[in-house]
Amino acid sequence: QVQVVESGGGSVRPGGSLRLSCTVYGDTKCHYDMSWSRQAPGTGRTFVSRITHDGTITYGDTLTGRKGRFAHSRDYAKNTSYLQIDDLDPEDTAIYYCAVITCTYTFHWGQGIQVTVSS
How many CB atoms lie within 10 A of CB 98? Predict the structure, then answer.
């Protein structure tokens, strides 16, 4: 059974930084991609970024204009991906979800982690 666990969220002031982590436990049985999405209060879930099994990274269109503040990386040895977010803005307040997408296009979601940006 595959388990996806996020960590690293919390409350920060505008302009601060956070690094979210996502670790995969269990046997995915094949290679997998890892993605981040977020859901702000009262809105739907939106795509943030995805890093493929071979290291290709894409960022969501909703980040246009502010895309440079996000950096997605991956440590294959630790089965972990990281989402670094700099210059945090109150608009970044959301629950951030990590997902693992296997080679059979099966999605495994984490429980989500809260990020709150306020002064």
Answer: 27
